[in-house]
Design goal:
Blueprint (H helix, E strand, L loop, with lengths): L8 E4 L4 E9 L5 E9 L8 H13 L3 H6 L11 H23 L6 E4 L1 H6 L9 E4 L6 E4 L8 E6 L4 E6 L7 E4 L3
Parallel strand pairs: 1-7, 4-5
Antiparallel strand pairs: 2-3, 4-6, 6-9, 7-8
């Protein structure tokens, strides 16, 4: 679990039962309440990374219209490699601005990408992002690692069990997919 700390917020608890409560105030200053109560169920900690990647992909894929708008498939046809890399970087920055504006928390700080695409697209110049390399993904996933008080993903752990939950109002607005295929 320690190796996932860079990519997801981890909350340690002493029991197998957890309660989460989020309160947000709408434009009329009326509170909206979102709560979750459940038990920690996962026991195999070796698959936590796979579950995290699956959840990132799931949350990044909820808005089909935005996926089409931020697709990079047409960019990949660019014959000039330098221009290709520059266009991908600009696409990531555009997605980052979209997440910051629509997610209303801040700029994303993490990118999930395969090692092959990371090297091919020269993403090492993105110094403000934590790069999460995993060869099981084909696309680029840009997201904001949240705190416990913000919408996003939370890995709740106890001694021998854990659960990966999406928390807050509209956690999917903190995630975006850039299609490469």
């Amino acid at each position: 679990m320690k190796e996932l700390e860079k990519y997801v917020t981890i909350k340690k608890i002493n029991s197998e039962k957890y309660n989460l409560l989020f309160i947000d105030f709408n434009d009329d200053n009326v509170p909206d309440v979102c709560s979750k109560e459940s038990l920690l169920t996962q026991t195999d900690k070796s698959i936590a990374k796979d579950l995290l990647i699956k959840k990132i992909i799931e949350l990044s894929s909820t808005n089909k219209k935005m996926i089409e708008e931020f697709s990079a498939i047409d960019i990949l046809k660019e014959p000039n490699e330098t221009i290709l890399k520059r266009k991908i970087i600009l696409k990531i920055l555009k997605v980052s601005t979209h997440i910051a504006m629509n997610g209303r928390i801040g700029m994303p700080n993490t990118i999930l990408v395969s090692k092959e695409n990371y090297e091919k697209l020269n993403l090492s110049c993105l110094e403000n992002y934590e790069i999460f390399l995993d060869d099981s993904v084909d696309d680029i996933y840009v997201y904001r690692k949240n705190t416990e008080e913000q919408p996003g993903l939370l890995l709740i752990t106890s001694e021998d069990k854990y659960e990966l939950v999406d928390i807050g109002f509209y956690p999917e607005k903190q995630f975006m997919k850039i299609s490469l295929k």
